[in-house]
Amino acid sequence: QVQLVESGGGLAQAGGSLRLSCVASGLTFSRVGMGWFRQAPGQEREFVAAITWSGGSTLTADSVKGRFTISRDNAKNTVYLQMNSLKPEDTAVYYCAGDSRPFWPAPRRDRYAYDHWGQGTQVTVSS
Questions:
Q1: How far is the CA of 15 from the CAs of 22, 71, 89, 106, 125, in angstroms?
Q2: What is the pLDDT of residues 6-23, one digit of tens each?
Q3: How far apart are CA 81 and CA 51, in angstroms?
Q4: CA-to-CA distance for 34 and 58, rounded, in angstroms?
């Protein structure tokens, strides 16, 4: 059974930083791409960032480019999202997502490309 467990969310002030972590179990983590998505109240779940199985290629949404960085540690089965220069509009529940297709060559922004999801972690940014 695949489990993705996010942590690191919380309350931050505008301009501050948070680092989200997602620990995966039940899948061959080092072979699959991972992604981060977020969902604000009343809005669709949107893409934030994605990374290939090797960590060699990443993709970030325009809304967070230059502020958020995705990375992974395959030895720890963990994917991270470093969030800097936070803005109130970054407030949302952040979800970790895992692909099930091994060795996909490019990071994937389509939410329907992911088969596994975490329970989410709340990030709230105050102005």
A1: 23, 21, 12, 31, 9
A2: 999 999 999 999 999 999
A3: 11
A4: 10
CA distances in angstroms from 51 to 21, 41, 94, listed in the order given: 14, 26, 16
Question: Residue 119 has which token pair?
Answer: 């329970």
What DSSP element (H or E) covers 7? strand 3-7
Distance CA 47, CA 2 (A): 21
Q: Do 73 and 58 meet the contact criterion of CB atoms below 8 Å apart?
A: no
Tell me the per-residue pLDDT of 25-75, one tens digit each, with 9 for 90 and over. 999 999 999 999 999 999 999 999 999 999 999 999 999 999 999 999 999
